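anyone else get weird line breaks when pasting these?? whatever heres mine. first is seq + tokens for prot A
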Amino acid sequence: MMIHTIALVLVGAACCAAGPQIDSPILATIRRTALTIPGSGFGSPGPDAAVIAQVGEERRTIASTSPAVLLWEDDRIVLAVDDAARSGAVRVRTGEGLSNPAAVEVYQYEWFDIPPTEGTNALPLSIAVDAESQVWINQEFHREFQHFDPATGVVEGLAIPRPPDPGPFASTIFRDHRTQTSVLGEDVIVDPRGRVWFTQGGGSLYSGEHPNHSRVVCYDPDAEPGREWRVYNMPGDWNEIIGLAWDERRGRMWVAQGSLEKGPAIASFDPERIEWDNHFDFSRSLLHQVCEEGQPTDDCYRVYRLPEGSKHPAHLLVDRRGLVWYTAFWGNRIGVLHPETGRVFEYPLPRAIGLGDPVWIVGSGPWQILETPGGDIVFNEYFDSTIGRFSAARILDPACRSLNGEGRNPCISEWIVPGADLRNQTLHSIAFDAQNRLWLTQDATKDTATDASLGFITADGRHVVRLPSLADFPANAVNASTGIAIDRASGDIYFCEFQRKRLGRLRLVE
């Protein structure tokens, strides 16, 4: 089959309501895949039916019978997209008239392999981009973390400082013993000074003989040789940390402690005043570093205990008012902490709609959390392929703290990713781009052929746009996308391809 270039931009004036209609004002695709145009009134292929595509001064009419048209149905048209396609717009013409225009963004997809690491599998989970367009990746099991320099196109592994054997973590996979390999700990952020922070979470649901510690690790790429690393060993056992948030106003780091064994909590510390080292005596819990009642918090860890229903707080956000928001992954809710008073409000989510394991235990699995440009709070529901939005203006409204008679939270609106497989797909990560669109990554289960993809919610919140499946680019593993980060300088979209052990990049083709 001949694959035609599809060049796209805005064409003509608005059409009449009686003719064909395109459902979204913006569509997106990747070179060497296909473009789906959803809508209504497209009719059947025929001499009067065509797609009109234009970029700049170039205009093309693609007949409904053209080899470039892979599918033409009344509510959907699918066009082949070749290696030379560029961004622009399309309209659909039928005997009933001309549709409304839809802008189309075309992306070039590239990938960069992550080098193997001794003793682990280099599965990338979370990602951050700094002000210099450098990319930082936190991987599962945490024997290394990675740095990607766009100028070289190479992913470099950086060995995380290890204490003397037997290590700070514990495992019961084969027997109850200590190890250098941690699980959980799935965050990486860059603070305003360019320092990179990530978590090593200790054990998952572990309650064996050995204490299981967690660490917050800081890497300063601008530091003098030999002084790049700081490791903050979190006081307490089995605290199972995941999320981080930097508080520029207070100069403090906030850490979510899931701790199904010891109870949910959020901790904060001043990294310039607190004790740090690459290792310590693991027979001690370091609880002596936790602030006592009435003690100044400059040189100790301030720990805020959360309600028991906040099971496994995961990711954090410090909003513009200095309030600390969190997702309760096992608690099917989000919450907010007022640091000065210690007061906590929590907002329950509707009953989970996901069908895969372990939804029946966890619920919808609220995971990452962000602040919108307008001050509202958005978060993704991992198992429900859903984005939630909380109206921050209603933070003190008692109606937000319970579900109504219809099982909904009146302060939370939700978008379900269209076409999501609720049994085999999960919604892993979210990030805002410079146009205030919320990008998302869909993960897929390891043992199924379910497609993973990326997409975004438009800035007005009215449309969810999905890109073609990553399965269209064969590799030696199942397609799965996890962490996502966007370079505000270049607009490049970076994401982790978990099972394929590589970094993906989407670059807009204009």
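and prot B, same format (seq, then tokens)
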Amino acid sequence: MEKRSSYRLILMVLVLLMLTACGSPLPRTEEITKSPWNSFKQAMSAYDKIVLNKTTVDELRDLGFDPYSTPNVKILSYLDVIQKFMPTNSVKLEQLPVSVRECLAKQEACIAYEAHPGVIKRKRVGSAIKDLLGFKRRTLETGWRFDALIVLDNGVAVYKIWSGIPFMDSEKSRKNPLGPLQGSGGSLARDALGF
């Protein structure tokens, strides 16, 4: 009987070792904002084709900026546009671009499309024991992010602006010499399972 349980124990240890050798037991996350673009370059190329005072809502749809056919493109009302351009009282209406001021004066005829396509991958690397116990945690982050705002006056693009990160490649590292005994402001279970 003892021999049989010894074999079972050895077999379980071998299976556990093989499973951890096949893949890292550390968490990985992937944040993908679905869009018709697979890269920053593709999104930027579509954005560059928008011609102010000429490109219509139908042409924006063909370029991929359409909230009704493209996932994750948001429609902003003129009140939302005001908040985007004037988040505090220190920004005055006369400081806004002329095309935006004229659009806002038309109220309901003024809307905007906002798009945030991108792919961000996070992968924790290093010793699983040290990571899960909180002694040392390393996270690699890769991907791209593109942000576009297009203001539409009666269905025609009158203002556009973009920002983004064409190439993301960073590493975050955190060391706690006392591991689980050193407080990090959060619960041990949350720290062990997530970011």
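btw re prot B: The first strand starts at residue 28 and ends at 33. The two ends are 45 Å apart (CA to CA).
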